[in-house]
Amino acid sequence: MTQVRLIKDGTPATLESNINNFLESIIKHEIIDIKYSSVYNGTTAVYSALIIYR
């Protein structure tokens, strides 16, 4: 079954760390794709990654 996980953070470095931690927790799964996005609303940046795996 295909699953997704959305990870968001305010800094790229912390997002990267969170992604690495999650990937370590699903080591036996197949990673299908990782989508990355960032948005800035004038005062705050939000970085996010959508990890698609099975």
From TrEMBL:
Annotated InterPro entries: Spore_Cse60
Mind telling me what this protein is named?
Sporulation protein Cse60
Q: Which organism is the protein's source? A: Neobacillus novalis
From which lineage does this chain's organism come?
A: Bacteria, Bacillati, Bacillota, Bacilli, Bacillales
